[in-house]
Amino acid sequence: MSIRGVTLRIVVFSLLAIFILLPFAQTVLLSVTLTLPRDGYETGSLTLLNFIEVFKRPDLRASIGNSLTYVSLNIVLCLAAGLPAAYAFARYRFTGDRHMLFALLAFRLTPPVVLSLPVFFLFAHFGLINNPVGIALVHCAFNLPIAIWILESFISAVPREYDETCFIDGHSTPSFFFRRLIPAIAPGIGVTVFFCFIFSWVEVVLARILTVTAGKPITMAINALYGFQTDIGLVMAMTVVSLIPGLAMIWFVRNHIARGFVIRT
Amino acid sequence: MNNPYSNRAWWLLLPSLALMGFVAVIPLMAVLNYSFHDVFTVNDAYWIGLEWYAEIIRDPSFWASFGRSALFSAIALGVQVPLGIWLALLLLKMSRFAVPVLMLVALPLVVPWNMIAGMWLTLINPEIGLAGKAMTALGITFDYKFNALHTWLLIVLADTWHWIGLVVILSYAGLSAIPEPYRQAAAIDGASRFAVFRHIELPRISGALSIVILLRFVDSFMIYTEAFSINAGGPQDATSFLSLELAADIGSYTYGRAAARAMLNVLIVLTVAWAFVRIRSSERVR
Which PROSITE patterns is this protein grouped with (chain B) (predicted)? Predict the structure, then answer.
């Protein structure tokens, strides 16, 4: 690499880091600042009171639990339904396979706002309102196609002979899936979990419409903090808390997202 | 690929089909059904055929928001896709730093969508924000509430901040899956950097790239959360996108018209996706 090339890269990635990190710096800074006067403390002073408040308020604590519940459930559903489907697309040709891939794409591209109204009536009928199971199910509408694409690309990268050897070794189909296939595509599972997480944890429209009185997700708990006199420090503390599972997720998949995979359409 | 032909593979799709049927197909059919009715309550609806569609299509404000959504999508794709690919290409040459940089650009992807606007508005707030204070000190006025250009700038900036990571990650994943001998062979043949990209790298990442382009297209074309939280469509409807009008219809309980509007949005999105897939597959044949 030439000196010019190195300098260019340093400049570009420093600017990128500033651009990405600036809003986070702002958020963290405000989360440790007292923005509404509380007894004995002046506004503007540095404090951990905002974080203590987050964990003292039962509604905020409950919302963290709710969000974690439906995101985990959604990931489990997407993997359980997505793995066999991805295996079918990776290993077989069948009537209508291309059309199925396009149908999956079409449903991933259907905007959530469009589905919000009937989903509410349908789920009310089955008692899935105010219930994390409802949100976990509805998020499959856009996460399951993603899961199938990513898993398909990882399964395709495993040679067919691998499957055949396993079956000759006497593995039954479930035993092959759990003992051989899943370990072989572990990085793919990690990447899938990451993408399901980032689209489910942060989604607002459907999560809001499906929680009327209870089971509020973290996003709605933050919205509820805005009011006549918003305690912006508390809002930012809650935002920081909401980032922690995402940061953990990035940390777990950091080596897999860099290793390379190809998605086929 | 010489995969065996077997229709028994459909059994493997069964769980996915059941799940998608319940959460996507049935709701979509219900929207289609509402769109032909004047809906007072769910049990009290009158068949009116295509009247809602006719009303919306004749309404100039629908076409105005369609234009705004299309323009926003074009800007978002035009900025984010080339920038993301360029960053991924730069990153490829310094693979030691790939992991930290990918982690960095992934950060905004895990921020709850309603807080993206919250974080940016706080950042540019002249009283408490770092950027806001800096701009005041430099004498720059940034009035996102009443200056349409500034509102647009803020939404594009926040959207790029949010999604650039997706483009970089998927492009990098595709690029780093290309075996090094491909590039070396091209270099021996004396291919320029651009020629290597155009004829070797681009075709091999086109699958990942189409997913990125389609996802970014639909999410920017149907942008709701950020745009609504930043300025609720203002100033004077300058950022009133298709999804904001749809949400307003749902909010005012005109379910029939909301459903017709929703179906029109789905039709637009799917037409573009279908055309895109067709163009891509015809290129592959050639």
Answer: ABC_TM1
Collect all residues of chain A within an 8 Å Cβ-Cβ radius of residue B131.
22, 26
Which A-chain residues 151-210 have CB contacts (< 8 A) with chain B? 156, 197-198, 201-205
* pLDDT: which is higher, B22 or A96: B22
CB pair distance less than 8 Å for B176 and A259 = yes
The 10s digit of each residue's pLDDT in B7-20 is 888 888 889 999 99
B222 and A111 within 8 Å at the Cβ level: the answer is: yes
- Reported as a single tens digit per residue, the pLDDT across B35-66 is 888 877 667 777 887 888 888 888 888 888 88
Which residues in chain B have their CB less than 8 angstroms from residue A222's CB? 112, 114-115, 118
How many CB atoms are located within 10 Å of the residue A212 CB?
12
**Chain A residues with CB inside 8 Å of B130's CB?**
22, 25-26, 29
Rounded Cα gap, residues B246 and B251, in angstroms: 9
Predicted interface score ipTM higher than 0.90: no
Distance CA A152, CA A85 (A): 8
Q: State residue B223's pLDDT score.
A: 81
Tell me what pLDDT residue A39 has. Answer: 64
Q: Which CATH number fits domain B60-285: 1.10.3720.10, 3.55.50.30, 2.30.29.170, 3.40.30.10?
A: 1.10.3720.10
pLDDT tens-digit readout, B64-118: 888 888 999 999 999 999 999 999 988 888 878 888 999 999 999 989 888 888 8
Is some CB atom of chain B closer than 8 A to the CB atom of A258? yes
Average pLDDT, chain B: 83
Task: Give residue limits of the domains in chain B.
Answer: 60-285
Class of domain A58-227+243-259: mainly alpha
Q: What's the CA gap between B109 and B11, in Å, rounded?
A: 35
